[in-house]
Amino acid sequence: MNIFRLTGDLSHLAAIIILLLKIWKTRSCAGISGKSQLLFALVFTTRYLDLFTSFISLYNTSMKLIYVACSYATVYLIYMKFKATYDGNHDTFRVEFLVVPVGGLSFLVNHDFSPLEILWTFSIYLESVAILPQLFMISKTGEAETITTHYLFFLGLYRALYLINWIWRYYFEGFFDLIAVVAGVVQTILYCDFFYLYVTKVLKGKKLSLPA
Amino acid sequence: GQSVEGKDEL
Asked: How far apart are CA A148 and CA A17, in angstroms?
């Protein structure tokens, strides 16, 4: 465990909590893509099946359980409790265009052709693109609430910190996972445009709105 | 690649 990995995990946790609190406090999930949140719930479910097969550490187990629980709670708030506030008309990204190719790729390119490993690979690939419905929704409406941009910032920062963690681990531990690294690079690149807007607009106190 | 048992990252 190095500092980049730890801050990456905490950044991920911050993102998840920010989103939950935003929905809970405002009693509304306006501007949030339920589809992205469904995909993240699927990502955590397929990745953390090793909770049943192996124990790494108390930290590892607790974080996995927290991520899974929070992602299901978020989905519940969007599709059940605050369904009336869900902006389904703008959440029109076709998720099958992500899930089907990602599913096929995880069968073709993986470390080991076993059920758990294929599901882990699927979750890694899917996570890298799971934010697309949310970004698509923002590009459609042309704006995002500031709290939503904080959520996206921490979510993007998390994988960027993991990239540094992987460089660190490569040099100091000889650890290298090509699948995670390539997917992590793709994932981080998808946030670049958003990072630019976040720094140039949101951090200067302006609302994130896109030119018409 | 690493085995399923070795997945210490989140």
From this structure: 12
Residue position matching structure tokens 């190095």: A2
Q: Can you tell me the ipTM of this complex? A: 0.84
Chain A CA closest to residue B1? A111
A174 φ/ψ sector (left φ>0, alpha ψ -120 to 50, else beta): left
Angstrom distance (rounded) from CA A80 to CA A94: 21
Query: Hunting for tokens 């994932």 — which residue is that?
Result: A187
Q: CA-to-CA distance for A158 and A155, rounded, in angstroms? A: 5
Give the H/E segment covering residue A61.
helix A58-76
Of A54, A63, A178, the CB nearest to B10: A63
Beta strands in A2-50 (DSSP E): none
A 70-99: CB under 8 A from B: none
Q: What is the pLDDT of residues A84-98, one digit of tens each?
A: 999 999 999 999 999
A175 contacts in chain B (CB < 8 Å)? 2
Helix, strand, coil shares of chain B, percent, nearest 5, are 30, 0, 70
Q: Are A157 and A11 in contact (CB under 8 A)?
A: yes
